[in-house]
Amino acid sequence: MDEDFDIPVADEMNDEFMDDIEAPVTLKVGEEKEIGNQGLKKKLLKEGEGWDTPESGDEVEVHYTGTLLDGTQFDSSRDRGTPFKFTLGQGQVIKGWDLGIKTMKKGENALFTIPADLAYGEAGSPPTIPPSATLQFDVQLLSWVSVKDICKDGGIFKKIVKEGEKWENPKDLDEVLVNYEVQLEDGTVVAKSDGVEFKVEDGHFCPALAKAVKTMKKGEKVILTVKPEYGFGEKGKPEGSIPANATLQITLELLSWKVVTNVTDDKKVIKKILKEGEGYERPNEGAVVQVKLIGKLQDGTLFIKKGHDDSEPFEFKADEEQVIDGLDKAVMTMKKGEVALLTIAPEYAFGSTDSKQELAVVPPNSTVTYEIELVSFVKDKESWDMTTTQEKIEAAGKKKEEGNAFFKAGKYLKAVKRYEKAAKFIEYDTNFEEDEKKQAKALKITCNLNNAACQLKLKDYKQAEKLCTKVLELESTNVKALYRRAQAYINVADLDLAEIDVKKALEIDPNNKDVKHEYKLLKEKIKEYNKKDAKFYGNMFAKMTKPSSNKAAGTKEAEEPMSVDSKA
């Protein structure tokens, strides 16, 4: 558009109208629709590519022809042979353009009919645009450069000059590899570096780099406009020739990054991916895995090397305690072919005692590192992988025995996983034969009871109560289920419910010593609670009836209230 046109500024725009046209406008070629509620119309002349549309702040490039409703042409970039560029949503063009072009895709051609209120108003733009004129613009969106206010405070604007790959962005723990060049506003280059690697949360050069890189994709190249608060602030960087309060222009390219994750919630097993694996599958509990690994102490001492120098890969079963806990947990997060560097704290490694390994002794309380490659794995079968009901029953029995072994060793969390998996194998038994249903029922009862015993040890009383209830739904006279549920109720102070379960268990098995002992403990607990209640209510009653300290002169001293019977 000609520069001498009287372009209204964006501040005059109705905010409600702006919100109204944010939704995508879907049209077929030749179809016309009103967008928004102030008379702006769009007719699609040619479909665009993809589904992306430009946003406020983006730098767009268009060809256009402007006409009055009678067909009189008043302007055309096509005639000049030069596309028109402007920043969208910044009031650099008439409102109808700012609003309409936001709905266009790359390569799209549309005809906009723009009422005077969204064009040049009552005054028009003499001599070409009459007063109160409705205008038509035939617009083709050639391209745009995305410009983002990445901190939403105007501190860092990012213009994408080269699109990246895929959709992932680096996270705080990741280690990124970048190229960058830093210029002052006058074009003076003050810093330049290629192939720099840094941890995102640690940052590099100035705060803007870490902020920006978290919004970028692999291979993406951007130009950043960085205000002083995200650069070097009021002090500048004298040794780097950066003056105080300098606005910087940084060209930044994200070459690649290594994904770093916390394998455990307590951040004591950390995995850095050195080479991405294949596909999406990962080993499950019980999977047979083959790995290459090199284990080192923090001073670089090599203590184990497996699967290298033409030797066979090291094979073990995941989550079966055949390797240290940290290695077990980490391998179940890996894909086939993945290479990773693990850093494992003593709690998940060899603990507080020394451990003689293949090539060296690991001292007590050592943090260790492993470079590990997952060569292959065979997943432990899930229930849906099993073709026969008998196979499911046998698998459930095997998992139950594994759970029992872990329970006896005091490893209750591992036992819980086995009992849960066993129960899942036989959860749906509608296709089982009658004899198989009986076997499945017996296994369900045993696994849930044993799981409940684990939960009591782990002090998860609510889960223990739920598991016992499952058993009682299958077998209402199961004394163990009543006994363990009563224990769970006692520990959460549901003494009335505990008493019901204990009494029912004694009706079924009057001579059960464990239940009789539990009943004795329960009665003592009830007596203790009654005493506490009596004391509480007695103190409350005493406070309510205590005489006022402001007694009238000559009145008789109030008598002490009768003491509450502690046996009440």
From TrEMBL:
Q: Which UniProt keywords apply?
A: Calmodulin-binding, Isomerase, Repeat, Rotamase, TPR repeat
Q: Which InterPro entries match?
A: FKBP4/5/8-like, PPIase_dom_sf, PPIase_FKBP_dom, TPR-like_helical_dom_sf, TPR_rpt
Report whether Ligase shows up as a keyword of the record: no
List residue spans for each TPR repeat.
Answer: 479-512
Residues in PPIase FKBP-type domain copies: 57-145, 173-258, 286-378
Signal sequence span is: none
Q: What is this enzyme's EC?
A: 5.2.1.8
**Has keyword Transferase?**
no
Q: Write one Pfam family the protein is assigned to.
A: FKBP_C
Of which family is this protein a member?
Belongs to the FKBP-type PPIase family.
Q: Indicate what this protein is called per its UniProt record.
A: peptidylprolyl isomerase
Specify the species: Lactuca sativa
